[in-house]
Amino acid sequence: MQAAAVAGFTMLLWVSAQRTSRVFERLNTNHLLTTIPTREAALGVVVSVYSQVIPPFSLPVLSAAVGFAIGTQSLASTLTIVVAVVAFVALAVLFGIVMSLAAKLATIQSPRLRRYRNGIYILAYILVFIVWIAVIQGPISDEFIVELLRRVPVAWFVDLALLPTPEIQTGVARSVGALCVTIVGVPVLASVAISLATRVWNADPISATEIHRSRSLVGDGFVERLFAGLVSRPVLTVARKRWLIERRVPLGLMMAGYLIILLPSVFLPAFAVGEIPGISLVSFAFICAVGTGFAFGTTLLGGEYQSLQMTLTTVSGKEFIRGAVLAGVALGGPITAAGMLILGVGSSIGILETLLLAFSGVVLCVSSTTIAAAISMRVSYYEFQLTPIPFTDATAYEERGLKGFINLGLVLALVGLVCLPVFVSYGLMFFNSSVATVLNIPITVMRITSLILTVFLAGGVSVVAYRRAIRSYNQYTLP
C-alpha cells in the first residue's frame, strides 16, 4: 500500500499538471486581469484545478473508508482514511500545479526550453523503460522496491490512514509526520503557486527567434585551436555546421534514441553475473557507435536540403564527408572511450584489453558514421518531405515513408556484421566459458584477436563506405 501510494502521488502530479496547463490555455487574461486582482485570479486557477481533480475521488474514497471501518470494526478508521486521502490529494494537486506553473514560466523566459518543453515525455519513457527492465526483468526484487518506497514521505499517509486499525503495524511518528507535512506544505505550496501564476502573467515572453540568431561557422574558438594544423578549414566548417544543425533541430539525436531498446544488452549480463562482463563493454561500444552513425550520418542531406544547391557547388565530396565524420567522431568517440574505461574499472578484464576495447569503440564510431553517410547519400532529392520533429516545435526534411527506417536498419545490420567477430568471441566466453578450453586457446588471446580483427574489418569497411559516399555526393543530381 505504501508503494502504491507513491505511484498514486506521481499519477496525481501528472494529472494536475496537465489540468493546470489546460486551465491556463483557456483563460483570457487580457480581460480577466482588468477586473480582478492577479492574486485572486491565481487562486481561482488553483481552485479550478482542485474542482476538476477531487470530485472523482470523493465517493469512492468515502465508500472505501466506511466499508473498511465496518470490516475491521474500527469506526475511527473512517476519519483517519478520509483525512489522509484529503491531505494526500491536496499535496499532490498543489505540487502538480506548482510544477506546471514553474515549467510555463521557464518556457516563457527561455526560448530553448519552449521548443523542447515536451521533452518530459522522452525522459518519462526512458525512466519507465529502465524501471521496467530493472524490476520486472532484472534482479531487483519487489521487496527491495517496497522497502525503498515506504521510506518516502508520501508513504507516511498510509500509516496515518491505518493508524487506528487493529492488528496492523503502523508508525505513529510517520503518521504525525504526514500531518506536519500537510500543515506546512499546503499553505507553502499554495503561496508558491499563486506567486508563480502572477509571474507568468506579468512576465514578458522572450521571442523564440532568439535561438536563431546568426552565428559564424568560421571562428577562432576552442574547436579551431584543437584541430589547428590537423583539419582543413572547409572540413571543420562542415563539422561545425553539423553540430549547429543538431543543436537546433536534433533529428539525428532523436533517431539515435531508438537504440534505448538495446540498453538491456549492457546491464542485464552484469546483473546476471554480479560484475561487468566483457560482453557488456562490447554492447556499449556497439550502441554508441550506431548512435553516432544515426545522429551524424543518416541526416546529411535532410539537414542540407534547403541549401543543397549551394552545398553541392561550394563543398567537395571529400570535404563534406570528412566534415560529417569529424562531427560524429569528435562527439561520439570520447563518449564511447570514456564509457568503456569507466565500465572497464568494474570489469574483470585487464587494462590492455580495456584500452583496446576503448580504441575499437572509437574505430567503430568512424565506421558507423561512414556507413550511415554512404547510405544516406543514396536518397533522391524527391524523396524528402517536411516533417514535424516529435517532442519539439521544430520541423525538418526526412525521407518519405518507411525508407528512412529501412536505412536505419541497414546501418544497424552493417555495423553488427563488422562487430560480429568480437560479439562471437565475448559471447562465447560469457555463455560458455569451456569453449576456450576445448580449442586450447587462452581466453585473453582469443578476445584480443577478435578485437584486432574487428578493428581491421571496421577500417576496411570505413574506406569502402567513405569512397562510395564521396562518389554519391559528386554524382548527386538536382531537378
Structural commentary:
With 479 residues, the protein is an all-alpha fold. The chain folds into 2 domains: 2-210, no CATH class; 220-474, no CATH class. It is built from 23 helices and 2 strands. The chain has helices spanning 2-26, 29-32, 38-53, 55-72, 76-109, 111-115, 119-137, 142-149, 156-161, 172-202, 222-226, 233-248, 251-256, 264-273, 278-296, 300-304, 308-314, 317-345, 351-376, 403-418, 420-431, 435-439, 443-474, and strands at residues 384-388, 395-399. Helix 15 runs parallel beside helix 19 (351-376) and helix 19 (351-376) runs antiparallel to helix 20. The termini are far apart.
Provide key terms for this protein.
single chain; 479 residues; 74% helix; 2 domains; 23 helices; two-stranded antiparallel ribbon; mainly alpha
Structural class of the helices, strands and pairings?
A: mainly alpha
Count of individual helical segments: 23
Strand order, main sheet: write it out.
Answer: 1-2
Give the helix level as a range of percent.
over 70%
Overall pLDDT: 80
Approximate shape: flat
Q: Please mark out the parts with pLDDT under 50 across 5 or more consecutive residues, or reply none.
A: 208-212
**Number of separate domains:** 2
Relative strand content: under 5%
Which radius of gyration do the C-alpha atoms yield? 29 Å
What is the helix/strand order?
A: HHHHHHHHHHHHHHHHHHHEEHHHH
Described by strand count, sense and barrel closure, the largest sheet is:
2 strands, antiparallel
